[in-house]
Amino acid sequence: MADESKYDKWFAQRRVLTDDERLEFIATRPLRQAKYPPKDRKPVSDDKPSANVDAGSLVSFVSGVSGQAREDTLNSTLLAQLAADVKFKRESDTRDWYDYYKWVLGNIFWTIQSFSFETFGSGTKTFKMDEVIIKVLESLLTDNEKALLEATIQSLKALADDDRRVTIFNQESVKSTKGNFQAAVAKDDKNDVVLRIGAFYFTTNTEVTRLLWAEFTSSETSLYKGTQEMVLNRASSGYPQVRDQIVKKLGTRAKQFVDDLDIGG
Question: Given 4, 119, 142, 232, which is the most exposed site by the fewest CB atoms within 10 A?
């Protein structure tokens, strides 16, 4: 059994791990178990956009991102979510959760800054979370990327309450009156992946059952948002060093927490 006190100390120091430490760290990470049946994902053409539910994240890929790069993005961000879920309560210890999420990603070849969260003010009596996501991220996105994110959200909203993808995203992003989720658009940059991501967490007075469908009362809701551009280094000296270890560590979780969304194209 791994000495977790060592890793806790390294996390407190925000240590950048060596190659050997990195592989050991991945192999020994406690990950939350899945409660969803595994499902194979459909093969994706490199020249078409795609989108996925990835636990508590919605991830969209523009055309031109290779199938392997899409898998790398989904697997690495899933690993970081599930590792952070074990260390901190996703909905109530949110700042610590994001610090750990960032630390894991930074040690598996993502270049990532600290999430700088700000209070979101809707300026209206009520608001819907799907509209907030677009409003927060639109300044980071091209018109095509914004349209893709909108299509991703609408694809999820169009599904039935008992659809597997709805169940995964809602159960992984919301617990009663609190939530923590991400929405992102990925593109290729000379074989690296650039991920423009919005991170959100909230507390409200009314129980939330379907995050993107609910109407929130502004005076009863505290919503925080942060955005940034993350880059996955996929050069031979980067992510390929840990790819197989991450796939092995996730095991069937990659088929349990991740599912495809139909966005056309």
Answer: 119
Helices 4-13/94-106 angle, 10° precision: 90
Query: What is the percent of the chain where pLDDT is above 70?
Result: 99
User: For the chain, what is the domain count?
Assistant: 1
What is the separation of C-alpha 83 from the centre of its chain, rounded to a whole number of angstroms?
12
Q: How confident is the model at residue 224 (pLDDT cuts 50, 70, 90)?
A: very high
Instruction: Locate the DSSP E strands across 104-191.
Output: 110-111, 118-119, 126-128, 174-175, 178-189
Residue given tokens 């994001």 in the structure block? 98
Q: What are phi and psi of 237, to 5 degrees?
A: -85, 5
Sign of CA dihedral 163, 166, 171, 175: negative
Residue 143: other Cβ atoms inside 10 A: 8
- What is the C-alpha to C-alpha distance for residues 109 and 195, in angstroms, rounded to an integer? 13
Of 94, 90, 110, the residue nearest 102 (C-alpha): 110
DSSP β-bridge partners for residue 174: 179
Query: ∠119-123-127 over CA atoms, to 5°?
Result: 85
Q: Which residues contact 65 (CB under 8 A, 6 or more apart)?
A: 46, 73, 186, 187, 188, 193
CATH number at residue 75: 3.40.198
What is the spatial distance between Cα 254 and Cα 103, in angstroms, rounded to a whole number? Answer: 20
Read off the pLDDT of each residue in 53-73 and give the average, rounded to a whole number: 97
Asked if residue 1 is part of any domain, the answer here is: no
DSSP 3-state of 107: coil
Domain that holds residue 212: 46-259
Task: Tell me the torsion sign for CA atoms 40, 44, 50, 56.
Answer: positive
